[in-house]
Structures are given as C-alpha cells and as structure tokens.
Write a structure and sequence with these properties.
The protein is mainly α. About 65% of the residues lie in helices and about 10% in strands. It contains 7 helices and 3 strands; from the N terminus they run βββααααααα. A 3-stranded antiparallel β-sheet has the order 1-2-3, with no helix packed on it. Strand 2 and strand 3 form a beta hairpin. Helix 2 packs parallel to helix 6 and helix 6 packs antiparallel against helix 7. The longest helix is centred in the C-terminal third of the chain and has 50 residues. The protein is elongated.
C-alpha cells in the first residue's frame, strides 16, 4: 500500500513525515499495522536581521514623522542661506561711485543681505541636525531604519544645499565667495561628509555583517531540516 503523508503539530514548527501502512497475512487473517517514525522538530531561526525588520513596526509613527520633519527643516535651512548672500551685480552702481572699487567689492562681500534670514536659516539647521542626531541615537541599533530615515535623506539634502550654494555664488556673485557663502559651504560640506561616512559604515559594514550572519544561520537551518528528511 502506498505511504501517506501525515503532519504533526503546528505547520511552522513541524515537518511532514511519512506514515507507512504495512499489511501482514496470518492464519487469522490480514493484519494492518501503522509504522510512525519519531517526530522531528524544525529549529526556529530568529536572526538579528529579522529582528531589525520586525522592529520597524515597533518604531512609533511619531518618530517616523519627526524624522521626515527634521530632514526637511535641515533642507529648508540650506535653501534659505543663499538668500542672505550679497549680490555684486545689484551693488555695481555703488561700486562705480566708490573711490577704490576693489576695496568696495570686498566690503560688499563681507556684508550680509537680509540679516534676519540668517537667524532663521541657522535655527533651521541646528534644529534639523539636533533632531536627526537624537533619532539616530534613539534607534541606533536598528540599522535599516537609521539608514533609510536619517542618513540617506540627510546626505541627499546636504548635497542639494551644497549645490544650491555653489549655483548662487557663481550666478549672483560672479564666483566671489562672501562670508555667508563660505559659512554655508563649510556647514553643508561637514553635514554631507558626516552623513556619507555614517551611511557607508552602517550600510557597507554593519548591515552587511548582519545580513551575512542571517544568510549563514538560515542556511544552516535549511540544511538541518533537509538532513532529517533523508
């Protein structure tokens, strides 16, 4: 008689085993016996990478909203800063009326246009960077979340701010760097470098190690279950 498949326990914990029905003929008639091999328990594999994936659902929605807000407010600061750069083109008539044109241009570059915007841009940058640092420290153990929510958006926004500053310098200031332009380039450059460094460390080293350990442990579990079926 053909063997039939039987399942024991929960589907997630047990593997199917074959039950063989054997028929024997005696003087009193046929006797059917059932041979059931011992139950084999499949090992439960719970890796650190799986914990991180499951941990994404445990992070409060408020923190996801704050992560988007802080990265956006940082970008807003980068965008506002170029509006404070002094334009040499708008000061050309005054420069011609000055006795020493070169010295006058230097003084124009050292002045700040729309001074209140400087404070607004500074507050936005400090608030955004501080909030991102706090969220990174709070969820630093979940590499997936900090990469996707903190480092990647922060890096992209810093690059956008850096490009916007350079475009403004070479269009409005004829390639001359004012004080605020230099400060903005330094700030965006530092932020871009830090986020790029942390992104590479977390993505190419820390998360890669966790994924390698996950593949190794899952592979061992599959080989163990396969060996029990032989």
């Amino acid at each position: 008689m053909a063997p039939s498949k039987a399942y024991y326990g929960k589907a997630s914990d047990w593997v199917p085993l074959s039950t063989t029905l054997t028929t024997c003929t005696t003087t009193n008639g046929p006797i059917t016996s059932t041979e059931r091999p011992g139950l084999v328990h499949r090992p439960s594999v719970q890796t650190r990478y799986m914990d991180m994936l499951l941990g994404l659902d445990e992070i409060p929605r408020l923190h996801n909203i704050l992560a988007s807000f802080f990265t956006w407010i940082l970008l807003a600061g980068y965008v506002v800063f170029p509006a404070t750069f002094t334009s040499l083109n708008r000061s050309k008539n005054l420069a011609q009326a000055a006795v020493d044109g070169n010295e006058f241009e230097k003084s124009v570059l050292n002045t700040v246009r729309n001074a209140p915007l400087v404070w607004i841009a500074t507050i936005c940058c400090i608030l955004g960077a501080s909030g991102m640092a706090w969220l990174w420290w709070r969820w630093r153990s979940n590499y997936i979340w900090v990469i996707n929510r903190i480092f990647m958006p922060g890096l992209l926004n810093s690059l956008v701010g850096l490009i916007s500053t350079l475009v403004n310098v070479y269009t409005a200031q004829n390639g001359e760097f004012s004080v605020t332009a230099k400060v903005t380039i330094i700030a965006t450059g530092i932020c871009a470098s830090m986020t790029a460094f942390l992104f590479l460390v977390y993505n190419n080293w820390a998360l890669s190690r966790v994924k390698s350990e996950h593949d190794k442990e899952v592979g061992q579990g599959r080989r163990w279950v396969g060996s029990t079926r032989v």
